[in-house]
Amino acid sequence: MGIRFDKLGVVIAAIAAYAAFLAPFATFRANRIVPGQGRSIVEALPSGSGALLLALVVVATVVALVKTPLIWRLVASVAVLGALALAIGAAGTFLTPAGNTFARISPASGFWLLIFAFTLLLADVLTRLELSPLARIGILVIAAVAIGILLASGSWDSLSILKEYANRAGSFWAEARKHLTLALGSLAAAVVVGLPLGILCHRVEPMKAAVLNVLNIIQTIPSIALFGMLIAPLGWVALHVPGAAALGIRGIGTAPAFVALFLYSLLPVVANTVVGLAGVPQAANEAARGMGMTSRQRLFDVEFPLAFPVILTGIRIVLVQNVGLATIAALIGGGGFGVFVFQGVGQTAMDLVLLGAVPTVALAFAAGIVLDAIIELTATRRRREAVA
Questions:
Q1: Cα–Cα dist 281/304, whole Å
Q2: CA angle at residue 375 from 372 to 381, to 5 degrees?
Q3: Which of 223, 164, 166, 181 is nearest to 341 (CA)?
Q4: Is 85 exposed, middle or buried (0-12, 13-18, 19+ CB in 10 A)?
Q5: Which residues pair with 66 in a beta bridge?
Q6: Tell me: the pLDDT tens digits for 163-201?
């Protein structure tokens, strides 16, 4: 039999080949804002280390390209990702001139493409292994701990993004708190308002179309436009409503950002509540009614538990959406990681942009994995209860 190629492996191999042999692995800049000079893997790493990394990438690429056992593909992807994490730190140390505090070393396109290619391979392996929800969360925790160890060890301290962090450590964590407050606070408010509204829409059919149409219209308004539209009314409230300004309500800042995220969050919560309740089997309602349950008892003891996985899916959508949208809040003084993104754009300092973008992406990714696992665990438990 001839060699069989994996379809996804062909894509991974093409990306890895370009990234390893044609694209720059790291970028050297004399200071944080001047144009950079690309360095290949061999040029960016100490003698011999670059060749070893290339050899590892080639072997892992062959494993991905050819149909191989899942354990081989798992080992290959993890080995390359670990080696890349160590190599980029070594490149930062190697390329930084001794005693030079102005030089900046950043991961270049080759590094990011290699990370993408072998993360894709790892994700494919984990999907095929059909891991349990708790196992997926465990892998996420292991990855977070490994990154934490690398950060604590100082292996990446010579990289430009860590130098940007070192200069802004205090403000970074302050903006992180604001970002989480906006994302989680607006989600909590949307759940408090959206769940009863969804239940009401399910019970009162004429109300459903009107509410969902209004929320759909809000959802189509671009985020920056909605932030801007809220400045005038909230500014008026701050001026004319006693105590509003003391609560932090004003035309710019956290208030309009919070309100905008809250409004964006309502549609997924309300719509999924309606869909979840509508999907409750009629037989379950009839059985509950036959047992003498009141309408309120049926809602909380039968309908809501059965609809909960669908409702939780809406909450997942909102959380991932809000983590990303909270970045835009910096444009109106709302704070969050967007502060670094827009500062970096204004200063043409891409590593400052990454200082805001990387944790935002990481938070959204982690939130998606954790809530997907919770949804699956909840749905599995409901199925077991139904069978029992």
A1: 12
A2: 140
A3: 164
A4: middle
A5: 5
A6: 889 888 889 999 999 999 999 999 999 999 999 999 888
The reported pTM is 0.83
For the beta sheet containing 104-107, the strands, ordered from the edge strand earlier in sequence to the opposite edge, are 37-39, 26-29, 104-107
Among residues 149, 166, 270, the alpha carbon closest in space to that of 214 is found at 270
State residue 293 phi and psi, 5-degree precision.
-70, 145
- Tell me the per-residue pLDDT of 300-359, one tens digit each, with 9 for 90 and over: 777 888 888 888 989 998 999 899 888 888 887 778 898 999 888 888 788 888 899 999
46 within 8 A of 90, measured Cβ to Cβ: yes
CA 55 to chain centre: 32
Neighbours of 123 (CB within 10 A): 12
- Please state, for a pLDDT cut of 70, what percent of the chain lies above it: 94
What's residue 26's pLDDT? 94
Taking alpha carbons only, the member of 20, 16, 2 closest to residue 121 is 16
